[in-house]
Structures are given as structure tokens and as C-alpha cells.
Amino acid sequence: MSRLARDSLNLPAYRVMAVLLQQNECRSVDLAEQAAIEPPTLSRLISTMRARGLVNRQRSGTDARAVRIWLTRKGRSLAEKLTAISEASEREILKALPPAQTQIVLQALVKLREAAAANMSQTPTGIRKIKSQATRPGSLLRG
Predict the structure, then answer these.
(1) What is the pTM of this model?
(2) Most exposed residue of 55, 75, 117, 138, measured as fewest CB within 10 angstroms of its CB?
(3) DSSP for 99-123?
(4) Residues 78 and 52: beta-carbon distance below 8 Å
């Protein structure tokens, strides 16, 4: 059984946690873009994660439409554990390839992620292209 399953998390919830772990706090519209999740789906997911004590959310004091989201202490602890597991798993998998091929695979995965994000930008909700990260272990699923 995977660690995500043991913690009753799905991949979108993990992506949300990974983005928030990197940025500490994020506006919901930016979080939807960076986690590649449709805004209505993100809203429901954040409600579930909030009920589990993993995230907090608050309306912005300057923009009534904006909602700020951040990890709770419990959410941060879980995100750190899952990220460490993910990075270790990626390193182990990538050991099967010589270093030069590893870089080629990582670069190809970034291009595929960008192409998928560009395709998503054509959806009616208008999710924009995900900004690619450096090609390093641990970044494959986080986008």
C-alpha cells in the first residue's frame, strides 16, 4: 500500500501540498494553476483538506475575491514526509539509467508536463501553462 493511500490522499491533494510546501502560502487561483487542478475541483479539495486539518484558508484583506491557502503544521509535516518519500523513490528509479540518460529523461518529462499543461490551457476554465521547474529529482509530480 502506498504512503498516499495510507494517509487517504489522492495525487491532486499531494500536488496541492507540494506547491504549498514550496511557497508557504498561495492564492487559490495561483494554486489551481500550479497544481494543474480545475478551480471548482480545487475548492472542494481544499474544503476536504481543511476538514482534515491539513490546510487553512482565509479571504484576502485587500481583495475580497482572493483566498489565501497555506499548510497547517500537520499538513506541512505530512507534505515533508511524502516529498522525502517521493524524492527517494525517484532517485531509486533513476539509478537504472546512466547520468546522461537521466538528464534526457528528466528533460523529456518536463516537456511532456509543459505540453499537458498547454493542452489544459485550452479548457473552458482557462488553466494557464504550468511553469516548469528545474529538472531535479523530486520535481516530476509536483509540476
Answers:
(1) 0.71
(2) 138
(3) HHHHHHHHHHHHHHHHHHHHHHTTS
(4) no
Task: Give every CB contact of residue 91 below 8 A, 6+ residues apart in sequence.
Answer: 137
Strand-pair partners of 25: 70
Distance CA 68, CA 58 (A): 5
For the chain, domain boundaries: 3-88
Q: Which residues, at least 6 apart from 81, have a Cβ–Cβ distance to it below 8 Å?
A: 3
Sequential pLDDT tens for the chain (143 residues): 465 556 678 889 999 999 999 998 999 999 998 888 888 999 999 999 999 999 999 987 787 778 899 999 999 999 999 999 888 988 888 889 898 898 898 899 888 877 876 766 555 444 443 333 434 445 554 44
**What is the CATH number that goes with domain 3-88?**
1.10.10.10
